[in-house]
Amino acid sequence: MAPPSSVPHAFFDNANSIPMIGLGTWGSPPGQVTQAVKDAIDIGYRHIDCAHVYENEHEVGDGIAAKIKEGVIKREDIFVTSKLWNTFHRPELVEGALRTTLKNLQLDYLDLYLIHWPVAYKEGDGLFPLGPDGKTFIFSDADYVDTWKAMEKLVDAGLVKNIGLSNFNSKQIRRVLDVARIKPATNQIENHPYLQQSKLTAFCADNNIIVTAYSPLASPARPWVKEGDVVLLEDKKLKAIAEKHGKEPAQVLIRYQIQLGHVVIPKSVTKSRIASNFDVFSFELDAADMKQLAALERNERICPEFGAYGHPHHPFENDE
Q1: φ, ψ of residue 297 in degrees (nearest 5)
Q2: If phi over 0 gives left and psi between -120 and 50 gives alpha, with beta otherwise, what is residue 31?
Q3: Which is it for strands 163-166 and 112-115: parallel, antiparallel or unpaired?
Q4: What is the pLDDT of residue 258?
Q5: pLDDT at 317
Q6: Most buried among 48, 140, 227, 319, using CB within 10 Å?
Q7: Distance (Å, rounded) from C-alpha 197 to C-alpha 151?
């Protein structure tokens, strides 16, 4: 197992850095997240990815606090990311949303804060304000370029070290770049061999914006999976590459992202799986492996955000 010091870092445009592997917490069951975070830190993870909408940040905070108290880590040893939810896009709501996240995480600052989606939902108590059809969300007219300016103020205030985007397409990133005083550090997007988004990742690279890959295993346990859906982890070509290296298919998928230069945040609450996902620094995929994995492209999106279709800023309707 790689010690934390040997985990490679990606460097943002501002010279700050982020560990290239982190623990994802989306969809982690309540009551299991604190232990998962503690296990991850013990295994060597120094990067935890969270979000307000996951509704488990208090459990993440308990796990981090426990390890700081034990003396396993200091605050500055761990990189913590969270995300501004869609109901808080109005500029006057941004700082309050962040402070709620900081309170839940028991932290004084975040290492990275992202706008979770470019779409804004109606402000209020509910995270998913549904319209009369019970399927489509009620939208807000808040524009993410105004949200971005409020995000920049969080950096000025010392509440956040770095700011970035999530689920933004290239046109939307360009709109942010056109107004940005502080450039986005990263764009966190779904990325795996069945959805590689090569044009978007190339655009990010051209603009020195680090790609963070979520759902790198194509989220086999996603709540909306249907019988008959193709499972990436069962792909025969992927399994053959894993067998060649004496590794698990999941380890190959995580290694693939790292070799692409992407930060990667696999999710698990099972200690053995958290450890296995971290054990990706003892082997390297060769050019033939990388080519085979690239050839698996199916343009198959796991997280389409169906309820936001029709929003003028939906990232998957109006991309280039």
Answers
A1: -50, 130
A2: left
A3: parallel
A4: 98
A5: 84
A6: 48
A7: 26
Secondary structure (3-state) at 125? coil
Region of 310 (left: φ > 0; alpha: ψ -120 to 50; beta: rest) is left
Give the torsion sign (CA, 126, 132, 134, 137).
negative
φ/ψ of 63, rounded to 5, equals -65, -45
Alpha carbons 239 and 280: distance in angstroms, whole number:
16
Q: Is the pTM here over 0.85, yes or no?
A: yes
Q: How many angstroms separate the most distant Cα atoms in the chain?
A: 54
Locate tokens 């700081």: which residue?
A: 68
The three-state secondary structure class of 10 is strand
256 catalytically annotated: no
Amino acid at the residue 134: G
**Structure-token match 């109005």, residue found:** 90
pLDDT at residue 27, rounded to an integer: 84
> What's the rounded Cα separation, in Å, for the pair 28 and 316?
25
Contacts of 281 (CB under 8 A, 6+ apart): 2, 6, 7, 8
Which residues neighbour 118 within 8 Å (Cβ) at sequence distance 6 or greater?
Answer: 144, 165, 167, 168, 169, 172, 313, 314, 315
3-state secondary structure 188-257: EEECECCECCHHHHHHHHHCCCEEEEECCCCCCCCCCCCCCCCCHHHCHHHHHHHHHHCCCHHHHHHHHH
Location of structure tokens 């935890």:
48
The whole-number mean pLDDT for each consecutive block of 10 residues of the chain, a chain of 320 residues, reads 79 96 92 97 98 97 98 97 98 98 98 98 93 92 98 98 98 98 98 97 98 92 65 94 97 98 96 97 97 96 89 83
Please state the length of the chain. Answer: 320
